[in-house]
Design goal:
The complex is a heterodimer of chains A (121) and B (106). With 121 residues, chain A is mostly beta strands. Chain A contains no helices and eleven strands. In chain A, strands 2, 4, 5, 6, 9, 10 and 11 form a seven-stranded mixed β-sheet that branches. Chain A has a four-stranded antiparallel β-sheet with strand order 1-3-8-7, with no helix packed on it. Classes of the chains: A mainly beta (121), B mainly beta (106).
Amino acid sequence: EVQLVESGGALAQPGGSLRLSCAASGFTFNKYAMSWVRQAPGKGLEWVSAISSSGGSTYYADSVKGRFSISRDNSENTLSLQMDSLRAEDTAVYFCAKDAYGGISYYFDSWGPGTLVAVSS
Amino acid sequence: EVVLTQSPATLSLSPGERATLSCRASQSVGSSLAWYQQKPGQAPRLLIYGASNRATGIPARFSGSGSGTDFTLTISSLEPADFAVYYCQLSANWPTFGPGTTVDIK
């Protein structure tokens, strides 16, 4: 059974940094692209970033480009999101999501329960 | 940038009724569309990919159709567990979600 478990969410100050992690199990992690998707309180879903199965290619939404960095450790089956220069509008639940295919299809067939990031002074 | 709109915003129906949800893209996206179901406090669940393919384990009462700019998610006979928010999503660069349709109990 695929399991994705996010961690690292917390209260941060504007301009601060956080690092989110996602522990993956139940599938061959190094064969699938992964993404982060966020959801502001009471709002819809927003794709944030994606990384290829090897980690060699990364992609970002314009809203986070230059501030967030996605990475993965295939030896540890872990996905990470380094979040710098945080803004109030980054407040959201952050979901780790598995791509349905080996390449980047942006069909997300498994999701973690999410971790809450709150940015406030 | 492709914009997705969903209608209606809210659909009030009774169990056993048929639900028809619409998703429209601002430009043609071929069949690069997915549908997700989300319940309060839970992560989304993939229902449909490639506009009309049911994901693994999704009941046959869920079906997707359409291509180009107009897409439909149909739930043939609503079960109590189906009352939730439904999002369509463009699966091409860059992935975009629609604003959602809430299906609630009438």
